[in-house]
Each structure stands twice: as structure tokens, then as C-alpha cells.
């Protein structure tokens, strides 16, 4: 069965239905099947852990961390290294056995009783029963909700991993990994139970984003507006991609005074707003566009790249020797920078390589864009914003945020942003903003019309901004002159979407296409309950958002 697979967890899934021969993302059937088996194992661990927790006992944080990392490893565009998966599988088995000994007697599902095979070949054979579509008789809506919960949890795990690395965690989130995964194996749960569980996943997503916000803003202080050069600077360089601020910080420390320029890439751009990061003079700018442009943009580049989280694409031969991964990111044959026992990393190899490559020969003319409008910075203008809205000078807010991706339909987001009238403010977050963040939107009432709130996890920041404004207007978020236009690609966006739904936010536009894992009934439920709207054309959606409230 090594040549068959099934995965429909991201937006670019083949034919909008599922990748069955190989992943559009570059995931081979081997990796896909090992990932299925790893999730199967994590579910087994979780069923035992839940029973143990019911006896008022705590689960060791090293096990929480293992489950978190395991989930994150299977998120789209994170890890493509079979050996890493085999190691994680082996570790999962010993953890499962430990919990099996500790758990009370009782009936447990197959995910618990299964014992991992010795060789990779046997594991791949076993993985068939871990496949999403294995149980043909499973109700389509149950499968859909189980998948929604699982993908939401994958998104949560990415944020949880980042926060934990900075020394922050939430017990609520930690316990929910087990409860959520157990729910996806539990045949006694009805559709209503699973809908509740999906909403609970959303609440947990809010909690993990809150924890990460606390971790980031305590460690690096609250972001404040900062101009970022998006053009090249002469000299050797390292491009840091992904979401992990701590990796960036450690690299900045280790490169200080070495004549190496550091650029952010993709989701790392909000780093320029954090006082404890922007103080480094050699953090010179932001490089390139969103993740899907990397193969073209990294081609033959005279410097190095460090991937701290998603999104990693198949590295081309022309830069295979200069791209490095760390944390849970990996690609077979690509250099990996491990975390040492004291939680630090040794970046000397990437530093030496970047010096050897020599870097850019010349400076390009500076082009600057503004970042750093997290909740703290934006809300410092709250009074003014409220006044201007009341005076009719600011008409409407649009939160245009989420993931970017390769499909052509994503021009919608550029068109939408361009068409937003001049008396409206655009808030943005995550990598979808690369569709329009280099355009000049000017100002309205003395405020920039484009406010970059941050990374995808800063959806929490956007929520803080929206609730504070709602309070100031003595209303609720749904009654604000605010429209949310979400773009999704991978599972962090699923966690973000569930978070917004769990907060009761209605009328969001979702695109560029709808998740393949939502069954028609589940989708209908979301439409009926939350008035979720699939995007149509930028013109029409803009018109209806402005008409609806004004
Ligand atoms: Fe396909 Fe997306 Fe799964 Fe990759 S992650 S195999 S592209 S559905
Ligand atoms: Fe982008 Fe991968 Fe999702 Fe954090 S970097 S948003 S797609």
C-alpha cells in the first residue's frame, strides 16, 4: 500500500477532494502514511491519558510536549523526512506502553491496543488502518467533524509549541490535546457532541493564542509601528522564515558583529515590530513574498535560509546546500539544527556558510513598509478611532487575513484590498497579506489605512482590537462596522477559524475554496449558525459588506 495515500487537510488538496497519489505539497505516500500512523498512535496515547486524567492524575509535561510536537510535525509543509517520522513513531510506542501500564482497566479502542511494528515497511503496511477513509461505513458528517477537530488541534499544537519554547504553556490547552484526540476515536459521541467538541477546539485555540501572545509580548515587549525595508542590502545574509521568534532572537545574538545581515521571510515579518528584536541593527529587512514563492526566490541565492516552522517547499538543487531547518521542520537530506539540552542552538554552521557564500553584491534602493500594529499599538489609537468613526470619517474596517497559497483564485484578496474605499481601514495578519502589503494605501484621519496586526496567531490580537472597539461603541463585535475576509491554506487557519466561531463571530467570508473535509451537512450547519459566506467576487463581497451595516 506504499503507493496509495489520502490527505485532504489543506486548501491545495488535489481536485479539491484529496491527495491520493502524492501530495500537491510534495508529501510522498510514504510520509503521508507514516503521518497517519503517527496520528493513530497519538490518539492511542490520548485515550489512555484521558482515562488517567479522569482519576485526578496529571500527565507528564514531556508527554504533552511529545503529542504537541507530533501533531505539529504532520501539519502541512512542516516535515518531509521519513526517518524523523519513524523515530517519533518508536517514541510514541514507548509512551503508549507507559500509559497503558498506568491506565485503569477497561475497554480501549484499537489505537490503544495496537503495537507498533519493528520495521518501516511493516509500519507502512499497518498504516492502512490509520487512514482517514479506512472505515468506509463511517458516517460522512462524523468523519468531517473528527477531521475538523484534528486539524484544529494541529493548528493549536503549532502555537503551543512556539509558546512552550518561550517557557509558556496553558494547562487547559495541554489537557485538551488528549481530550480532543480522544473525541476523534470515540464512537459514542453524537454529531451534537462533536460539534460541541469542535467549538471547544476553537475556545482552546483562543487560549493557546492568548498564551503565545503573552509569551511573545512579555519576552519581546509589545510590538510598535516600525518601517521595514523590503529590498536587499549589500553583504552576507541569512533569511529567517517561519513563525518562531526565539530562533530569530538566538540567531540575531549569534550573528551580532559578524557582518551578516538578517532578513525576515514570510510569517516572520511581524518580528520587526518587537522592541527586543528590532533593536538589532543587522536585522535589515524582509525578503521576498509569501511561502509559495520560495522556490523561485531562493534559487541560487548567495546566502542561507533558516526554516523555523511551516511553510517549507521541496528545496531545489540550486539552494539545497544553503537551506537549514530547525524545530519540527525537516526535509530528507537537508541540514537540521537541533536544540541542545540547555534549550539553545548552535548556528555556527549556517553562519559560516552564509559568510562563504558572500551575500548580495550591492544595495538596492530602500523600499519601506510599516508593521507592528498588534493590539497594544492599535488600541493606543482607540479613542481617536472611535471619534473618527462617530464623526463619519472612518466608515468601515476590513480584516483581510489568513494564509497565502499558490492557487490563482487568491488574486481575490489583492483585488479586495485595492477596492476598499479610502475612508476604510484594512487590518491584516498572517502571510496572506503579501498579496497587498507592498501597496501604498495612504492614511485616513491621520492613521495608516493598512495596519499589520501580525502573524496568524495574532488573530488573538485582532480579536482584542475588535472587542475593545465593540466595548467603546457599547455594542458587540458582530454589530461593529467590521467585515472579516479570511483566506485559509493550512491547519493553523482551521484553528483560527474555529477560534473566531467559538467567539460567536458571524458573517465571515471564507476562501479561496472551502475545506474538502467539511461535509455538505457540516458546512450547512456553519452557514446556518454562523452565516459563513464562501467568497464570490471582490466587488460583490465588498458591496454587500458595506451595504449591510451602513
Ligand atoms: Fe495534499 Fe495538502 Fe495533504 Fe499535502 S497537506 S498531501 S497538499 S491535502
Ligand atoms: Fe502562511 Fe504557511 Fe498559513 Fe501563519 S506560512 S500563515 S500558510
Automatic annotation (TrEMBL):
Its cofactor is [4Fe-4S] cluster; hybrid [4Fe-2O-2S] cluster. Its EC number is 1.7.99.1. Pfam families: Prismane. GO terms for cellular component: cytoplasm. It is found in: Cytoplasm. The modification Cysteine persulfide is found at residue 403. One of its GO terms (biological process) is response to hydrogen peroxide. The keyword Cytoplasm applies. [4Fe-4S] cluster binds at residues 7, 10, 19, 25. The keyword NAD does not apply. It is an enzyme of class 1 (oxidoreductase). Its main location: cytoplasm. Hybrid [4Fe-2O-2S] cluster binds at residues 243, 267, 311, 403, 431, 456, 490, 492. One of its GO terms (molecular function) is hydroxylamine reductase activity. Binds 1 [4Fe-4S] cluster. Binds 1 hybrid [4Fe-2O-2S] cluster. It catalyses: A + NH4(+) + H2O = hydroxylamine + AH2 + H(+). Keywords: 4Fe-4S, Cytoplasm, Iron, Iron-sulfur, Metal-binding, Oxidoreductase. Catalyzes the reduction of hydroxylamine to form NH(3) and H(2)O. Belongs to the HCP family. This is Hydroxylamine reductase. It comes from Clostridium intestinale URNW. The gene is hcp.
Amino acid at each position: 500500500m506504499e503507493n496509495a495515500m489520502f490527505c485532504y487537510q489543506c486548501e491545495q488538496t488535489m481536485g479539491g477532494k484529496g491527495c491520493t497519489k502524492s501530495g500537491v505539497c510534495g508529501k510522498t505516500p510514504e510520509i503521508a502514511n507514516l503521518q497517519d500512523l503517527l496520528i493513530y498512535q497519538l490518539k492511542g496515547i490520548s485515550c489512555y491519558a484521558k482515562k488517567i486524567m479522569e482519576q485526578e492524575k496529571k500527565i507528564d509535561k514531556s508527554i504533552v510536549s511529545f503529542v504537541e510536537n507530533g501533531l505539529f510535525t504532520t501539519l502541512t509543509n512542516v516535515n518531509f523526512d521519513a526517518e524523523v517520522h519513524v523515530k517519533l513513531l518508536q517514541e510514541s510506542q514507548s509512551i503508549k506502553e507507559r500509559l497503558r501500564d498506568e491506565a485503569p482497566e477497561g475497554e480501549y479502542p484499537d489505537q490503544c491496543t495496537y503495537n507498533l511494528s519493528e520495521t518501516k515497511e511493516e509500519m507502512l503496511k499497518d498504516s492502512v488502518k490509520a487512514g482517514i477513509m479506512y472505515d468506509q461505513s463511517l458516517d460522512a458528517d462524523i468523519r468531517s467533524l473528527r477531521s475538523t477537530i484534528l486539524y484544529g488541534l494541529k493548528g493549536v499544537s503549532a502555537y503551543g509549541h512556539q509558546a512552550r519554547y518561550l517557557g509558556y504553556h496553558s494547562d487547559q490547552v495541554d489537557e485538551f490535546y488528549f481530550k480532543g484526540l480522544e473525541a476523534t476515536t470515540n464512537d459514542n459521541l453524537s454529531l451534537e457532541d462533536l460539534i460541541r467538541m469542535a467549538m471547544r477546539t476553537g475556545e482552546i485555540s483562543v487560549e493557546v493564542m492568548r498564551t503565545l501572545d503573552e509569551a511573545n509580548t512579555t519576552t519581546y515587549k509589545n510590538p510598535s509601528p516600525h518601517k521595514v525595508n523590503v529590498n536587499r542590502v549589500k553583504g552576507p545574509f541569512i533569511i529567517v522564515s517561519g513563525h518562531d521568534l526565539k530562533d530569530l532572537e538566538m540567531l540575531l545574538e549569534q550573528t551580532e558583529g559578524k557582518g551578516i545581515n538578517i532578513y525576515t521571510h514570510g510569517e516572520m515579518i511581524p518580528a520587526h515590530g518587537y522592541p527586543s528584536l528590532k533593536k538589532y541593527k543587522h536585522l535589515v529587512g524582509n525578503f521576498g513574498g509569501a511561502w509559495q514563492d520560495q522556490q523561485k526566490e531562493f534559487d541560487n541565492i548567495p546566502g542561507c535560509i533558516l526554516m523555523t516552522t511551516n511553510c517549507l517547499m521541496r528545496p531545489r538543487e540550486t539552494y539545497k546546500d544553503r537551506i537549514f531547518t530547525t524545530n519540527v521542520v525537516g526535509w530528507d537530506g537537508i541540514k537540521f539544527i537541533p536544540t541542545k539540552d540547555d534549550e539553545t542552538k548552535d548556528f555556527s554552521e549556517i553562519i559560516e556558510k552564509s559568510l562563504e557564500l558572500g551575500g548580495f553584491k550591492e544595495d538596492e534602493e530602500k523600499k519601506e513598509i510599516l508593521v507592528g500594529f498588534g493590539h497594544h499599538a492599535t488600541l493606543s489609537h482607540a479613542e481617536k478611532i472611535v471619534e473618527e468613526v462617530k464623526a463619519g470619517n472612518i466608515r468601515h474596517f476590513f480584516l483581510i487575513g489568513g494564509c497565502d497559497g499558490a492557487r490563482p483564485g487568491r488574486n481575490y484578496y489583492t483585488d479586495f484590498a485595492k477596492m476598499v474605499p479610502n475612508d476604510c481601514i484594512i487590518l491584516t495578519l498572517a502571510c496572506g497579506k503579501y498579496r497587498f502589503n507592498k501597496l501604498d494605501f495612504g492614511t485616513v484621519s491621520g492613521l495608516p489605512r493598512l495596519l499589520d496586526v501580525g502573524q496568524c496567531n495574532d488573530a488573538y490580537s485582532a480579536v482584542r482590537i475588535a472587542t475593545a472597539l465593540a466595548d467603546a461603541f457599547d455594542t458587540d463585535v458582530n454589530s461593529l462596522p467590521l467585515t472579516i475576509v479570511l483566506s485559509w491554506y493550512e491547519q493553523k487557519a482551521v484553528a483560527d477559524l474555529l477560534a473566531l466561531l467559538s467567539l460567536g463571530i458571524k458573517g465571515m467570508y471564507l476562501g479561496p475554496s472551502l475545506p474538502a473535509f467539511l461535509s455538505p451537512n457540516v458546512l450547512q450547519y456553519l452557514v446556518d449558525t454562523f452565516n459563513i459566506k464562501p467568497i464570490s467576487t471582490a466587488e460583490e463581497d465588498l458591496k454587500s459588506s458595506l451595504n449591510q451595516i451602513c
